[in-house]
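Onboarding guide, step 5: your first structure request.
Type a short instruction followed by the sequence, for example:

Predict the 3D structure of this protein.
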Amino acid sequence: MIELRLLRQFLAVAEELHFGRAAARLHMTQPPLTLAIQSLERTLGTALFERTRRSVALTPAGVALMAPARRLLAGADDLPRIAQAAASGLSGTLRLAFVSSIAYGPLPEWLRRFREAHPDVALQLREATLDVQLAAFEADEIDAGFVLHAPSAVPPGFTARRVLAEPLVLALPERHPAAGQRSLRFADIADEPLVIFPRQIAPSLYDAVLAAYRANDATPHIGQEAIQMQTIVNLVSAGMGVAWVPQSLTRLQRPGVVYRRVGAVDLRCETSLLWREPAPPVVERFVAQVMTLQRQSAAGAVRPRSGRAAP
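The system replies with structure tokens like these:
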């Protein structure tokens, strides 16, 4: 092993081409510097300098050693910064999973802003439903995840922050007899085949949808199941039935589909950001930025449009 000290001493002599000046630059006397260079040459098995009484010159081996020595020393000098950046969450890797619905909401903007503020953090993104995310947490494959669930039904065992609360709206084929109405009655769609996700991918939300049918003295007729929200909307477009989807998904303007509120039904969903403690510093950074952006968005939403103060 070659000590970094010897490489620093070698570079000082190589740049000064004078042992006396190099020793002064290194704040040492010349004899120990000469011994250090001789030790390095013995370790490498070759001479690095040609010495005469009047001059010092680099050998071809000495010339070849200068560039890699500089790179090694630069890398060593950078180690404290790298370690401190990782310890404070300014560098490293964030393995983040998300449900598809939030991709139609604020997630793209949050990711863009996080990358701008943390250019040295590598983002590994993974679209995954709740059941897949829970398995990934157990296997230590993700650090945090956005999950969809019924209100107040966050999976146990995690630290969580609610980032989105929104109603479920009904997606129905635009040729449906009730599609022209701005607000529907539950009776208008109670007997329609239901396109829904399998229960295991969001149990609390699945149960909430079925409970809404029971509360209206109706029995849901499940026509098709699909995992991804966009696939569910596509099946509605194909006339396979109707579907309850988060309101943010209405940004997915699929031809053949309209979105409507159902007056007597108060179905809601939440999206939460989950992680486990102790959280890596990079997760803490991401959570803090998401919370900040969420507060800023909420403040902007309630700011009065005119120049007058809000009442």
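Each response can be followed by summary notes, for example: The longest strand covers residues 159-173.
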